[in-house]
Design brief:
The chain is α/β, with parallel strands linked by helices. Helices cover 47% and strands 13% of the residues. The strands form 5 sheets. The protein has a 5-stranded parallel sheet, with helices on both faces. It has a 5-stranded parallel sheet with strand order 7-10-13-6-14. It starts with a strand and ends in a 5-residue tail after the last helix. Bound molecules: adenosine-5'-triphosphate. The site of adenosine-5'-triphosphate (ATP) has 17 residues, from helix 8 and helix 16. InterPro entries: AAA+_ATPase, AAA_lid_NorR, CheY-like_superfamily, Homeodomain-like_sf, HTH_Fis, P-loop_NTPase, Sig_transdc_resp-reg_receiver, Sigma_54_int. One of its GO terms (molecular function) is sequence-specific DNA binding.
Length: 483
């Protein structure tokens, strides 16, 4: 038998929970106001509490904090309605173990949650979240913020709410969106990802909502849009901050009405997909700057999850290296000084840059060594390190010095000289090596030209892509910003 506290001003609900929990053999104390609550926690120690977030005489979050301070071992489940779902996020951040939505539609869920919290000491969601992440090859590590983030995401995945994911480029927003999809009841339905910045304005409406046959010149047959393709699954709107204002209006309309019409069509279709939006720019700032609609932000920011950048979780880097090497069966081992270089670097491209770095290192070391020393790292990772000056650099590393670190013209000169040396060498030429040089020159040249364009446009990727006559997606691809 455990002592359970119920705090809610809805008498009917209190009666119902009281009956249910007493029936399970527990001793229940019911409080219908903040005042009752103050008295109850002075008189008794509780193992579990069900708290309503909205009480007439007291803020539910204050009650939660007060309870956690006085009785830190007491597990807490907050009870929310749709209008208070944002408060549920704060409640979990303030230490609530889980939340349930009112009205309750599954009594068994409450019984199960009660048992899990009282017997096992943690909400079922917590260990299930970590298990699912591991099944999906999604690295979380030991960082507390990342752990909380994934546990929180798991708890909200099952609810039918829109999620907004923020985080710097490459932090893993799409990876997290996949995780939410798999943790949700929609896992058996499609997951459709759309890069909002990459949709061409004139194709926008038909891309999103589809079109009927003959709706416009070139519409030879009927086509499903992203909303319809997602069906009862998840529609992931990546880089929503880059959507044009016209796109934003169209998205807002679907979110407000839950309906859309195909271009050229007449039938109103219901949107059944769950929306997850992601942005690498802070959307509140974008609203202030006038580039993002406030009403759209209000609609998508029901549950906001912010992924910390890799530089804020360097304690996880050694484990991340091991994880990645094992996962890809690379059979390499990084020396402690190499790991030190990785921990000192600030990783502006976050997880994506990290993965690319390991792939590059593995390619360089192939056939040469299984022990990775700092010399195998890109020079930018060693810029503050004693290793850069060392003369004892393996051949493969020398030949791949990236252009970013030097003037591009110097890079070209060095590349030509190396190619001439190879040509004039009397030995048999290693053709594989020559091909590698050509490929690396192609990549470095494309990146150098794009970076020059980005300088001209002061970092505006869309404008740079237009100037270069390529799509934004292609530009990002060349910059290694997308898989
Ligand atoms: N938690 C993770 N576990 C394992 N790999 C990850 C994780 N997060 C990110 N990655 C790696 O980083 C790459 C980039 O991740 P993702 O595309 O999700 O980033 P993003 O934040 O959506 O990027 P962008 O801002 O450019 O849209 C992935 O392809 C994957 O290789």
């Amino acid at each position: 038998m455990s002592n359970i506290l119920i705090v809610d001003d809805e008498i009917e609900l209190c009666h119902f929970l009281n009956y249910l929990l007493c029936d399970l053999g527990h001793a229940v104390t019911v409080c219908t106001s903040g005042e009752d609550f103050d008295r109850a926690i002075m008189e008794k120690e509780f193992e579990l509490a069900f708290l309503d977030i909205r009480l007439p005489d007291r803020n539910g979050l204050d009650i939660l904090q007060h309870l956690k301070q006085r009785q830190p071992l007491c597990k807490v489940v907050v009870m929310t309605g749709y209008g208070t779902i944002k408060t549920a996020v704060s409640a979990i951040k303030f230490g609530a173990d889980d939340f349930i939505e009112k009205p309750f539609d599954n009594i068994e869920d409450i019984e199960l949650l009660t048992e899990q919290l009282l017997v096992k000491g943690s909400a079922p969601a917590d260990h299930e979240a970590l298990e699912l992440a591991s099944r999906l090859n999604c690295f979380i590590g030991k960082n507390e913020e990342m752990n909380q983030l994934y546990k929180l995401a798991y708890k909200f995945a099952k609810k039918n709410v829109t999620v907004l994911i923020e985080g710097e480029t490459g932090t893993g927003k799409e990876v997290l969106a996949h995780f939410i999809h798999h943790a949700s009841k929609r896992a058996g339905s499609p997951f459709i990802g759309v890069n909002c910045g990459a949709i061409q304005e004139n194709l926008l409406e038909s891309e999103l909502f589809g079109h009927t046959k003959g709706a416009f010149t070139g519409a030879a047959k009927e086509k499903k849009g992203y909303f319809e393709q997602a069906g009862k699954g998840t529609l992931f709107l990546d880089e929503i901050g880059e959507a044009s204002l016209a796109t934003q209006v169209k998205l807002l309309r679907v979110l407000e009405t839950g309906e859309f019409i195909k271009v050229g069509g007449e039938t109103i279709k219901k949107n059944q997909a769950r929306l997850i939006a992601a942005s690498h720019v802070n959307l509140e700032e974008a609203v202030e700057n006038g580039t993002f609609r406030e009403d759209l932000l209000y609609r998508i920011d029901v549950v906001k999850l912010t992924i910390p950048p890799l530089r804020k979780r360097v304690e996880d880097i050694p484990q991340l290296v091991d994880y990645y090497l094992k996962q890809h069966e690379l059979g390499l081992s990084f020396t402690p000084d190499t790991i030190e270089c990785l921990c000192k670097y600030n990783w502006p491209g976050n997880m994506r840059e990290f993965v690319n770095m390991i792939k590059r290192v593995a390619a360089l070391a192939e056939g040469e060594t299984a022990i990775i020393t700092p010399h195998y790292l890109p020079s930018k990772l060693m810029s503050n390190s004693k290793y850069l000056a060392s003369a004892n650099v393996p051949t493969a590393v020398h030949q791949s010095i990236p252009a970013i670190e030097m003037n591009f013209a110097d890079y070209l000169r060095e590349w030509c000289q190396q190619m001439i040396d190879t040509w004039e060498d009397d030995d048999v030429v290693d053709l594989h090596h020559v091909l590698q040089m050509i490929k690396s020159m192609e990549v470095e040249t494309l990146q150098a030209i794009i970076k020059k364009a980005l300088k001209r446009t002061v970092g505006d990727r869309k404008q740079a892509a237009e100037q270069l006559g390529i799509s934004l997606r292609t530009l990002r691809y060349y910059l290694n910003e997308k898989k």
